[in-house]
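Handout for the seminar on molecular recognition.
Each group receives one record of this type.
Step one: identify the two inputs.
Step two: read the structure output and locate the region that could contact iron/sulfur cluster.
Step three: write two sentences on what you found, then compare them with the reference statements printed after the record.
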Amino acid sequence: MSAFTGIGEDREIDQEEFTPGIEPQATWCPGCGDFGVLKALKGAMPEVGRTPDETLLVTGIGCSGKLSSYFESYGFHSIHGRALPVARAAKLANPGLEVIAAGGDGDGYGIGGNHFMHTARENHDITYIVFNNEIFGLTKGQTSPTSPKGHKSKTQPHGSAKDPVRPMSLSLASGASYIARTAAVNPRQAQEVLVEAIQHDGFAHIDFLTQCPTWNKDAKEYVPYTDVQDSEEFEFDTGDRREAAEAMYEAESRLYEGEVLTGRFYHDPDRPSYGEEKRAQGDVPEEPVAERYFGDGEWERTADELIDRHT
Amino acid sequence: MTDQTLMWRIAGGSGDGIDSTSQNFAKALMRSGLDVFTHRHYPSRIRGGHTYVEVRAADQPVRSRGDGFNFLLALGDSFARSPQEGAYYGNEKVKPLAENLDDLNEGGVVVYDTGFFEEEDIAEIRLEERAQQEGWHVYPMDLRALAREHGREVMRNTAGVGATAALVGKDVSYFEELVEEAMSGEVMEANLTILEEAYEQASEFEFTHDLRVPTGSHETDQALMSGSNAIAYAALDSGCRFIAGYPMTPWTDVFTIMSQNLSDFGGIAEQVEDEIAAAALALGASHAGVKAMSGSSGGGFALMSEPLGLAEMTETPLVLVEAMRAGPSTGMPTKTEQADLEHVLYTSQGDSNRVVFAPGNLEEAYEQTRTAFQVAYDYQIPTIILYDQKLGGEMRNVGVDFFDREPDPSLGATLTEEEISEAAHHESGKFERFRHDPENGVSPRSIPGQTGGRFLASGNEHNTVGHISEDPDNRKAQMDRRMRKLEHVREELDGRDQSHQTRHGPADAEYGLLVWGSQQDTVFEAVDRLNAAGHDVKALGVSDMLPYPEAEVREFLESVRECVVVEMNATGQFRGLTQKELGQYGEKLSSLLKYDGEAFEPGEVVDGFESSIDGGQPAAGNMKFVPAAGD
Ligand SMILES: Cc1ncc(C[n+]2csc(CCOP(=O)(O)OP(=O)(O)O)c2C)c(N)n1
Ligand code: SF4
C-alpha cells in the first residue's frame, strides 16, 4: 500500500479546505495585494483537483512568504530567497506532490536570483509565484529589484540609479516553460493563470503584481490594466520565444510608464520537465524515492554491490 | 632502515598517472598479504607540477605514513619538459628527483628515470655525493625508453612498478594480475610486457640494499579504501538516497563517489548552483521523506550556515559533511588542516543545536557516518561529519567483512499514516507536529503527501502546529525541547557498547596526549614509540565533538599529570573546546600545533612531546608548542 494515500485522491474539493482553522486572520495590512494571491490560489486548487494533503507550499521570507501560514496544505516557510531549492528537491523526492513555491520580488529576484535562474533553466515541475510589489514590504519599504529607476526610499535617499529587473525576460532567457504576469486587482485572470501554471508540467513562473499600500503609495494600483490576450493590440504566439520575448519586453517597459499588461506570455507544453528528463535517463527511479522508506522492499548493501572494486 | 616496512614514494608530474599507479601498487601489496597505507601529496595545479604518493606497507598494521620514506621512484614530470613559450612552468624538470631527496631516509633506495633526467641535471643536484653521505642505493633505469619500445611513454609508470617489485623482492604476478583486471587488448598486452621487462632488467642489478618486504597473510579478504569511500558507503548503507552538492576540494571526493553510485541504488544526485542551494535541496528532500545529505569544505560550508539553521529550527533531519582544508578563505585547497572545528560548532545564528562527529580513521568514518544518519533522523537535528583532506584522501586496507553491514532505511521519528490518524491534532485538523511534551525532545513528524499529516515547517519560531508565534511561553517551551535533544543524544552515545573515543597506551600512564580527528592513529604510533623509549604516556582520541563526551575526557584528564593536545591548527581549537566544555584544566593542557598544510608524522609527535616536557619548543620549525596556562 502506498505511504501517501492522500496523493491522487479523486473527489470534489472545496476551496474552503484551504483555509486554515487556526489563526485565520492574516497579519497583512488592510488593502494589501497579497490577499489577492491567497484568494486566487485557493480558488485555483479545486479546479486543478489537488487536496491540501497532496500539496506542498514552500515560501520564502517577506510579507509574501507568509502565504504558507494562511493557506492550508503541507507548508514550508523557509528562508529569504531559498524557497526554490527546497521546493525542487521535494518535487524530485516525491513527484506525486503538487509543489508550489512563492516569495516576493526581493526574495525571488534579489537574494534568490541565482536559484531563480537555475530552477528555470532546469525546468523543474513546480509553480513559482512571485509577489511583485516593487518594494521590500516586511522590512519596511526599502527599494527592491523591481522598484522603478529613481525610486526614493530610506536606504536610497537620492533615488535608485538602477534599472529594474525584467522578471519575465529573465525567466524566458533562463528557460522557464510557462511565464505569465497577472495582478491582484484582476482576480478572474489571476485564478485562470494559476490553474494553467499548476497544471503545466515544467517550471511555471508567475510575476504576480501586488500592491503594497503601506510602503509603496506612489506605485500605480495596477489599474487600468490590459489583458494581452483580450487586446487587439497584442497578437502574439505564446509558443514562439521570439514573439513572447518582444511582448514581455513591451509589458515590462510599459509597467514603468503606468500601463499594466497582464496575461500569458509564454507557454511551451512540449519541453519535458527536469524530473521527466532524469527519469527517462534512468538517473532517477520511476517510483517516488520517498515511497521506498515506507515499504518493505529490499535495501542494497554496499558490501554486496561495491566492495569488489576495492579488493 | 626499518626492515619489514616499505615506505615507497612515487614522484612525478600531476596528471602523469601517479595516483592510479600508486593505488594499483598498494593493492598488489595488499593482495600479497601486507597491510598498506597511502598518503597523497598534490599541488593546486591540474597538470604538471610536482606531486607524489606514498605507500607504506608492512606485515603488521600500518596506521600512518610513517617518518620520511625509504624508496623513491622518480619518474620525471612529462608536463615540465616542453614549457610553452612564456608559460610559468619554470624549470621543474628535476623536481621529482630533487624535491624528494630531503625526506629520503638513510640507507634508502632511489630509482630514477634516466630517460627524463639528463646527466647535467643529476650533477646539478649532487645525487652521487649525497647518496654516499646518506648511504642511499641508486638504480638509474631508462624507464621511458622501455615504455616507448613496447607501448607509449605514459606507461613508464608500469615500468617503474615492475622495477620496484624486483628491487623489493615481490613476485611480479601480483602486479600482472592487476594489469589484467584493469585493462584489455593491446593496452593490457603492452603494459604486461613493460612490467615484465622492467622486472627482468631490475633483477639484473647487483643489489646493494637490503630492503626486502616479506609476504604476509590476511585472515580475511581485504579491501583498499579511502576515508571518502568509507563516508560515502556508510551514507548508502544508512539509506541515504539523495545528495546535492557543489564541488570544492576535498569534499568533491565524497560528492563524486555518491554521484557515481546513487542512481544504481535508486537514489538522486544533484550538482547545483551553489552551496546554499545544495544544503537547501538536501533539506527539501529530507522534508519530503528521503534520507539526504549535502556537504562541502570550509568556504562552501560557510554558505550552508543559513540552511543549517533552517534545519535546526524546522527540525528537519539533515546530514552535512565538512571536509577541512587549510584556510581561511580559499586557503590552500589541497593541503590538510583541522581549523574548521569552531566554524562547524558555532556557525548559524541563535542558540543553535547540532551534533558534530570527527572520525579518527577509516573505520570510524564509516561508523560515525552511520551514527550521523541515525541521530539526524531519530532526533530531527542536523548532524555534521567533520573530517579533513588527509583522512578523506588516504587509503588503507580493511577487512571486507567490516563493510558487510545491514542497511538502515529507517526514517527515524516519522509516523505512518495510521500513526498520524491516532496522533494529536489541533481542532482545525492540523497535525501537532511540534508538541512540547516528548521526554527526549523529539516530536515525531509526518511527510508531505501523507493523509492527515498537514503542518507548517517554519524557520520562524512557531507553535505546536508550526504557525509563527512570538508568545514567550511557547518560545521557551520550544527552545527547551529542542535543546533537550542534545542531552539525550549524549546519553544514547555514552550508553553504547563501543564508545567513539579511543584509548591507547598504559592505563596508568603519567602523561596524556589528547587528539581528535585524523591525527589519532599517528599519535597512537607516537605513544608506542615514546613508551618504548622509556616515557610513560597514553592517549585519548576524541571523535565526538558535540555533544562533548564530557565524562570520558574528564576521567582521562584526571588520570594524568599533564596533557598535550595535538592538533593541526594555529589556535588550539580543540583544547579551547575541551576547556570550555569541562570548565577547567587550563593549567593542565598544553598544545602541540602544526599548521603548515601537512599532517603530523609520528616522529614529529615524539619530538614535540619530548621537547615540551623539557619546557622547550620542538627542534623542527614546522610545529609550535603552546604551554599550559601558568606554565
Ligand atoms: C538573509 C536575510 N537577509 C535579510 C532578511 C530581511 N528581510 C526579510 S523580508 C525582506 C525583504 C522582503 O521583500 P520582498 O521579497 O519584496 O517581499 P515583501 O515583503 O515585499 O512581500 C528582507 C530583506 C532576511 N530575513 N534574511
Ligand atoms: S507591508 Fe505592504 S506587502 Fe506587507 S502586508 Fe503591508 S501592504 Fe502588504
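Reference statements: Chain A has a mean pLDDT of 95. Chain A touches chain B through 63 residues (CB under 8 Å).
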